Amino acid sequence: MEPIIFHIDVNSAYLSWTALERLSQGDPVDLRLIPSIIGGDMERRHGVVLAKSLSAKSFGIVTGEPVVNALKKCPQLVMASPDHSLYTRRSKALMNFLSDICPDIEQASIDECYMDFTSVAHLYSSPIEAALSIKDEIYHRFGFTVNIGISDKKVLAKMASDFKKPNLVHTLYTREIAEKLWPLPVSSLFMCGHSSVDTLKKLEILTIGELAKTDPAILASHLKSHGMLLWNYANGIDDSIVIAEPVKRKGVGNSVTLGHDVTQREEAAKTLLSLAESVGKSLRAENESAGLVCVEIKYSTFQSVSHQTTLQTPTASTETIYRTALSLFDAIWSQHPIRLLGIRTSHLTEADEPVQLSLFDGDSNQVREEKQKKLDAALDSIRNRYGSSSIVRGSLLSAPEAEKGIGTDS
Questions:
Q1: Are 11 and 165 in contact (CB under 8 A)?
Q2: What radius of gyration do the chain's Cα atoms show?
Q3: Mapping DSSP to helix (H, G, I), strand (E, B) and coil, where does residue 172 land?
Q4: Could you tell me the CA-to-CA distances from 282 to 120, 207, 327 in Å, in that order?
Q5: Does residue 166 have a cis peptide bond before it, meaning omega lies within 30 degrees of 0?
Q6: What are 100-143's pLDDT values in tens digits?
Q7: Could you list the active site residues?
Q8: What does the alpha-carbon distance between residue 283 and residue 100 come to, in Å, rounded to a whole number?
């Protein structure tokens, strides 16, 4: 199986995160919808533009230019100073969310990361559908948008995410280079800065395709080792891998946007069971138990409600998670049509960590828990060996495939 690499990039991160913070504090104006920038000192009006809105871009304002120049281009421009502590918090929340979907993440900067999606790709109908779901869930959960680039190479995934913005998914596999990459100007190539563009222009190399077909020796003679790097990137040559950094998860969860609005408890219960299987399997795979279960409902009106409870004994049992989730669901469902269902767990502990048993935990409960552990282990073994669809509960044959949902962070 060829590698599947995602590059996830927040659209105008500093501006989006500042705008959301202001809106949460009662500001009636969304900075993203007016000519605005992040950067510099508002009183002295100096510094450089760190981020800009789309309408500011229409005035010719570019990232990195002096604030004083931006104000000349657009006198009514609204400025906001950067808040790096806020950006760190927003970034951490995003990375925690993504790490629950796939643990193989390499954070490239505060607002972008690479994800080696290969190990979890089988849970989704296609990489594109997975990326679309991730992108949409980020918007619904956090309120900002991202671009996602998909490829079999890191550098191509990076360039794909830089295609048309905002809030879009693009592919740029090695086989698509000639069609999608080569017609673009060399300035669109990753790591090709102004100086390199000027040198290539003197060599009458204007497009990435022309660069890819140039004799590497010529490039090396004018741009040294950087010329070889650009030639490799233009031809999609990149042997770097996603270097995942371990992230201590706060929770494990899953949610699914339903194919149609659900109005019957029986159908919702089937979806919750499928979600509980997915969550329980993830917990067991990491040798973790959860001490808290939360259920989330999003109605067709996009109103969201949730309810949670603490468990007497931490668990990774599918049955326990399901029964708890169904009880929570019954407690909060308003009978209105349901668009999304989710189960989240948190208060994680190692599965073999000693726990304090309740005086009311009889022998029968312990026996039932041990039987459930053995059953879960057997099912996990079969699915790991023969695939996730090799064994399915009869009650789930008509339920949405919850394993194609999105991991959630508590």
A1: yes
A2: 25
A3: coil
A4: 11, 46, 22
A5: yes
A6: 899 899 999 999 999 999 999 988 999 999 999 999 999 999 99
A7: 112
A8: 11
Cβ contact 10:144 at 8 Å:
yes
Assess whether pLDDT exceeds 80 at residue 365.
no
CA distances from 14 to 85, 329, 379, 409 (A): 11, 37, 45, 22
Write out the two tokens for 10. 């927040």
DSSP E strand boundaries for 26-138: 36-38, 51-52, 78-80, 105-109, 112-116
Torsion angle, CA of 91/114/403/175, rounded to 10 degrees? 150
Strands 105-109 and 112-116: antiparallel
Question: pTM for this one?
Answer: 0.64
**What is d(CA 244, CA 118) in angstroms, rounded to the nearest whole number?**
13
* Residues 48-69, mean pLDDT to the nearest whole number: 93
- pLDDT band per the 50, 70, 90 thresholds, residue 382: low
Cβ-based neighbours of 317, under 8 Å, separated by 6 or more: 280, 369, 372, 373, 376
Number of neighbouring beta carbons within 10 Å of residue 323: 15
- Residue with tokens 């996990």, as numbered in its chain: 380
Amino acid making up residue 377:
A
Phi, psi of 274 (to 5 degrees): -65, -40
